[in-house]
Amino acid sequence: MKERIYSIPLTDALNESCDCVMCALERKLENDAVEYFMGASKMEPDVRIMTNKKGFCRRHLHMMEESGSPLGLALMLDTHLDELRGRIEKKGKGGLFAAKKSAEALCEEIGKIIDGCVVCDKLESHLFDAAANLVYLWDKEPDFRKKLETSNGLCLPHMLLVLKAAGSELGGKRLDEFVDFIVTTQNEKLETLNEDVNWFTKKFDFNHKDDDWKNSKDAVPRAVNKLVKF
To answer: Nearest to residue 77, comparing CAs of 40, 37, 110, 112?
Structure first.
């Protein structure tokens, strides 16, 4: 097998019992990204410039808080907060009779601060490369393709990402074949899931109270995992 950076992690993820192979990989990449910024890199000037400017989203800030390194996080937050104070003060000073304009500029600036996250940026880049790698392995490795076909498939957000990445790896007839593969296999998984969810609802009907649950007991969380990322 021709190795790419995500070939082994993707193959490992396919061997797991999960609702989405890309979700399994994203969890690993996300933890790696958090560890990167909490590690020695936080003291590198170029990294600190990024963390000062962009900061972190709620999810990743809480992950850092729970990482067990309060001093490392405090070092980044110290300079990040210092920069935020300057940005907010600058945008909040609109001058006499410019309160509305100042408020609009301040709202825009705060929006940028809230939406910024260096972990999300790093993760987004890695995920697209991983999705492109998945398409490559489907195209070049029959064993991988078979495992993907018999897996639980992808959640909808990652299905979208993989389809977008397919354009960077395939073209023409091969791209058409990949799209057909994804649509066919995903709909098969969704049909089975739909049947399980439907049976779950029927089990609350008195007429079916003594019937077997079949494969429906965990149908609701599986459906949630299929519709949204982990």
So the answer is: 37
Helices (H), 151-227: 156-169, 172-202, 219-227
Q: Is the dihedral of CA 191, 196, 201, 203 positive or negative?
A: positive
CB neighbours of 134 closer than 8 A, spacing ≥ 6?
Answer: 6, 10, 21, 22, 148, 162, 165
- Cα–Cα distance for residue pair 214/99, rounded to 1 Å: 63
Strands, E, within 104-164: which ranges?
A: none
Spatial CB neighbours of 89, under 8 Å, sequence gap ≥ 6: none
Tens digits of pLDDT across the chain (230 residues): 445 788 899 999 888 888 899 999 999 999 999 999 999 999 999 999 999 999 999 999 999 999 988 999 999 999 999 999 998 888 777 655 566 777 888 888 888 888 999 999 999 989 999 999 999 999 999 999 999 999 999 999 999 999 999 998 999 999 999 999 999 999 999 999 999 999 999 999 999 999 999 999 999 999 999 999 87
